[in-house]
Amino acid sequence: MADTDAMNNAPEASDTAAADGVGCHAGKAELQRAARAAGKSETLARYAADYPQGPHDQPQSMCPAFGSLRVGLRMRRTATVLCGSACCVYGLTFTSHFYGARRTVNYVPFNSETLVTGKLFEDIREAVFALADPANYDAIVIINLCVPTASGVPLQLLPKEIDGVRIIGIDVPGFGVPTHAEAKDVLAGAMLRYARQEASHGPVQAPRGGRQAKPTVTMLGEMFPADPVGIGMMLEPMGLAAGPVVPTREWRELYAALDCVAVAAVHPFYTASLREFAAAGRPVVGSAPIGIDGTAAWLASVGDACGVSKDKVALAQNRVLPAIKAALAGAPIKGRITLSGYEGSELLVARLLIESGAQVPYVGTACPRTNWSDVDREWLEAKGVHVQFRASLEQDLAALREFEPDLAIGTTPVVQKAKERATPALYFTNLISARPLMGAAGAGSLAQVVCGALGNKARFDTMREFFDGVGTSFAAGVWQDPPVDNPQFRERYKAQIAKAAAKRRTEEPV
Ligand code: SF4
């Protein structure tokens, strides 16, 4: 039935033709118009509700589809297929292998003819049937990038399974999904939905290590591998265990993730995934066991959500809080730090920095504000922190200028700008979000890298003094000889441009 409806909604060749040639250069509005005309209105409306945009309306970091691709590539027995422009696929494949994918990125190429005539969909279908071997795969993920989404390539018409291999088709256009963090949710949510429907129809596979004896708390959002282990130890006195981390590393973990007593929205922007947990009747807890305040409050919230007695919650708190307190006291952070990123854990890191003794005037995250980030936002705002959701690069750079931090933690362009100013800087994605953050281990680990960077200020000053003026302004770029400025050329062009503008003005009709 669903397939028949989808058939009726299939795009007309004229709609697809309208999108042909509408590449990245055409702009977001044009791509959205084409996608709507080609039958993707429902998908775009859902994304607009799940991932609200603004103040900037275009991704300012990597291609959002990388988030979905990464989730697929990290799963066992899962094949991932991209459909999009060759330049986009090249970039996504390169980035995947840069981050150590060690899996094949499959690709169905297209040209104007296959896109316009609908042959592209037939090519995708053929590729999926060729791949769908149950001996190799549990699932195949097909990701429509910008142009196929704008052209309405109807992945919903693919069979839902082939010989027991699940087929998951998703649209992940840059003009509908603002960040790669949220694109992880697009795929995780689609998989949870599929797994929930399977579980509602009968018995499903148990986790690889068997079902947990204790009730579990599922973690939502990628985290350092040691963090779920530490969280499990914190939950133990409450009679609970740490469940799987979503996005999962294997299909069967999806059932275990749904089979929980509560969900910890450690990354608070997984809106589609949370919809599936809500449909399964699972309560949600925001924030994470981070620092002293965060851990005490989080354990209490989990206890409330899971019906654990106050005594047991207190037992869990008393067991872990002294160790966190000692770790924070033993590794203090002194200095003013601005922080920005696009991973979704920025508010948590800021909390830990503040509890370690740092002054944090600004936190920018590319992710949107949600109900589940309120706990952390309120805590930070009470400490005088400016929290900027959907932060633009311009806002992050303005914070750098305004607060003149001793250390800037941020995205690549923020770190570049900070280093130009001789301000020590750390990449959020590679150096901060790839470390343990929870419990006592998180406190010590974060302080180690942050204090190391803060101690580099003198080296930056020396380098700045040594290189003063080199490679800046007119001397930027690669030169064979010592650079020589020619201000007279610029003056001459400026005069010519002004003359041409004046001429245009006199020729304009009154
Ligand atoms: S798929 Fe879209 S957002 Fe991603 S690189 Fe291509 S044009 Fe850019």
For the residues shown, what is the average pLDDT? 90
For the biggest sheet, the summary is: 5 strands, mixed
Specify Rg, calculated over alpha carbons: 26 Å
The CATH superfamily of the largest domain is identified as: Nitrogenase molybdenum iron protein domain
CATH class of the largest domain equals Alpha Beta
Number of strands: 14
The CATH topology of the largest domain comes to: Rossmann fold
CATH-scheme architecture of the largest domain: 3-Layer(aba) Sandwich
Low-confidence stretches: 1-15
Describe the structure.
- The chain is an alpha/beta fold.
- The protein has 3 domains: 2-178, Rossmann fold; 216-327, Rossmann fold, CATH 3.40.50; 331-464, Nitrogenase molybdenum iron protein domain (Rossmann fold, 3-Layer(aba) Sandwich).
- Helices cover 50% and strands 13% of the residues.
- Strands 2-1-3-5-4 form a 5-stranded mixed β-sheet, sandwiched between helices.
- Helix 17 links the parallel strand 11 (359-365) and strand 12 (386-388).
- Helix 10 (180-201) packs across helix 12 (251-258) and helix 14 runs antiparallel to helix 15 (310-330).
- It binds iron/sulfur cluster (SF4).
- Residues 24, 63-65, 84-85, 88, 91, 145-146, 174 line the site of iron/sulfur cluster (SF4).
- Iron/sulfur cluster (SF4) binds next to helix 6.
